[in-house]
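Colleagues,

Please find the record for the two-part complex below.
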Amino acid sequence: MIQLMPGRANHRAEMVSLMSLLEDLQKIIDDRNRVSTSPSELYCYSLDASQIEGMPDVVVRPLSTGEVSKILKLAYHQRVSVTARGAGTGLAGGAVPLKGGIVLDMSAMNRVTEVDVANLQAEVEPGLVRDDFNEALKPYGFFFPPDPGSSAMCTIGGMIANNASGMRCVKYGTTRAYVLDLEVVLADGTVINTGSRVLKSSAGYDLTRLMTGSEGTLGVITRAKLKIAPLPKARRLILTAFSSAEEAGRAVVRVLSSGIAPSACEILDRTTISVLKQCDKRLVLPDGDVVLFEVDGTEASTEEEVKGIAEACSPTAISITMAQSQMAMEDMWAARKLVGASISRLQPEKSRVYVGEDVGVPIKRIPEIIEKVQEISDDVGLPVMKFGHVGDGNLHVALFIDVTKRDQRDKLMEAADRIHVAALDLGGTVASEHGIGKARAQYMRRQHGPALDVMRAIKRALDPIGILNPGKLDLESE
Amino acid sequence: MIQLMPGRANHRAEMVSLMSLLEDLQKIIDDRNRVSTSPSELYCYSLDASQIEGMPDVVVRPLSTGEVSKILKLAYHQRVSVTARGAGTGLAGGAVPLKGGIVLDMSAMNRVTEVDVANLQAEVEPGLVRDDFNEALKPYGFFFPPDPGSSAMCTIGGMIANNASGMRCVKYGTTRAYVLDLEVVLADGTVINTGSRVLKSSAGYDLTRLMTGSEGTLGVITRAKLKIAPLPKARRLILTAFSSAEEAGRAVVRVLSSGIAPSACEILDRTTISVLKQCDKRLVLPDGDVVLFEVDGTEASTEEEVKGIAEACSPTAISITMAQSQMAMEDMWAARKLVGASISRLQPEKSRVYVGEDVGVPIKRIPEIIEKVQEISDDVGLPVMKFGHVGDGNLHVALFIDVTKRDQRDKLMEAADRIHVAALDLGGTVASEHGIGKARAQYMRRQHGPALDVMRAIKRALDPIGILNPGKLDLESE
């Protein structure tokens, strides 16, 4: 038997058997390979990259908006929950079906349906992998800027559902800034478009932005029109090192205030730097708390901007180094991308667990949160690395435990909780770009206060029976 | 007697007398100057810059969030409508109280409460005038980029409520891109914050963006935290002329695709140019359909960008001219700002009426909408000028009538309707930056289809009695 969503009092309350649901689904999708209840497959869909788990009853792989609409109509009438899923790279359980029901694996809807350079946009299906999208745009001289660490795997639909961003968002903005129009299937199967091909509009509620970041709780995205940006002609990298994270933070503000818009602005704290150095002897890294600036544009503009960054940093920097070659630059980015895994290379028994990993604070409070995180890590006795997108206040925290030791997991969860609370105390957010899902749902009231009730009212208005991705974002009213 | 909002069936249905409402309001605001029912004052609040009219019953000028909250609580319980208003510069009737009731004149809440350069943001009250805000930011070397034509009068609250933009949004984005957090008083008086001081967050529904552009129908904005941008060090202007609007449009796409982000990109069609020339003989203007590009940044970067623009335009341009001095540049912008009024200087009996003035289309369809608008104007026999923010597809249409002639008004309304329909047929929007209000409410269904029902559901969820700015955006279900 399948768990039914509570729904409204006057809704019919019969139970639905898995067998009858399957029969109905197969009437919609006449392809055995696309409707599955195989236990090994279900298991794969019960996880994402977080610690959250939940077993679906059935997995469906739709190929069209029409199929998604029919599936939702069915689920709505039978009060079965539906959780849409892209690549499952999420770090907060957003795509895990907590109440069982149907998982919609959107990964087969993965086409670039149009590249329209003359309108500076492209249209894609939600299952398209982000890096595949950029490969498709390259011949046109364009790219889609948001660049999460998982860009080789994660899907555009998942990025929109989480308002994903990454290193380049300090210059280019988050996913939100690129969504022009979403085709969305609502809980009852109705298909809407939230926007249009127009780059700018002021005509009613911004449903595009409401859907972006709503983690599949308001509708299922089946198509997206996205703004695209011209590929820059040149990039340069500059490494600046400071005697403290505080000095580093101040230098970042000086750079950003000077009118330079770096295409990346990453902090690697001194612990992170020392681990990286031990890990890869070839890397030429300065000592201290390091800020890595990247600029992009033309040869001339990047040269000018690098000079400007050096000027803004020089009063307090203990060292300023330019990456001297394309290769040195690539090495540096490769190191940055792998930073979270580097401790495991040194101490193979240690594993990084993604909890408390995505806090954000106002830029000027970055030094405070770094200090606070170190204090918590010392206190609970777990090693920690701190790095992140300092240009928009997003600190990634990597906590490491020996997964064979039971008590370490409790310490880990305690540390994560204290990190979340510390970020909120500094006027911050528990999630900067990884979403809330289930893993951070318990902080929604604390972060949003009475605004959570507004979110809940919107959820009830659009999904009265609560079939869409239930159990997430603390949206179900008590 | 005051018109009461219909509300829910079970809501008490007594009528409220103006006298008793006034008494209650005066208990909240013990200052006769801030609660008014004087007919001459009420008349001032019955209009904005559009053709829409509606008389309020009482005008209140709150000074604090607490007062706004108490007023809304009162209005909610008594089912009296509340329309918030900034400077009344709106062009669609958004601030006109169609159902009478209370007008909240927010213009006395006009302080810059904080400039926080280290977090790249400022906090303001909604009644602050946009240019006053920029005056306050200047000493810090920062500015608030959205720049509507009415920037000398319009308020930040009104800009947020309409998601206003202006010429520089092609580079800097619309108001939406700058709002970090709104303090909003909901229909029942509850005060919420939609965001925080963090530059980036992915933690629940984006209520900030939902409120931005909702034209006072979901809540009353009482405070805003806004991102600010560093003032550019240099600006340059380049005028390019083409043999057709189509060629002009194609050149714009070539420029934007080349990686140049102009800080303005304005089209002035050949009719507009010829009127401007007759109007001000000093202006050095080329013939043809003109695109005015502005770039900002450093001396070196703007020099490089101007070269890039010239290169991208030269294959098809009939002329390319640089503004040779600061003064030439200022003259050009002054002409651009006054373009809408210029016909009246030549033919004093003609007045510009703001209808059909804010359509937007996908960039590549700009030539088609220009042609279509000319066709409509020829057809109805009213003179027209066409200009606008071509870089984001926003065409401003200036229609002129002799207001002393009765039949001209009918022709005008016919032309406006046909222009709106033409924009929608081209996949566009009836409002790019001026909002929907009442003037364009009849196009909501056609533009949004079933998505309008989602907007209505959100409206009902947040304002069940319908007291907030009723009669706008076609939000009231049949």
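Residues 7-14 of chain B have pLDDT under 50 and may be disordered.

Comments are welcome before we finalize the supplementary table.
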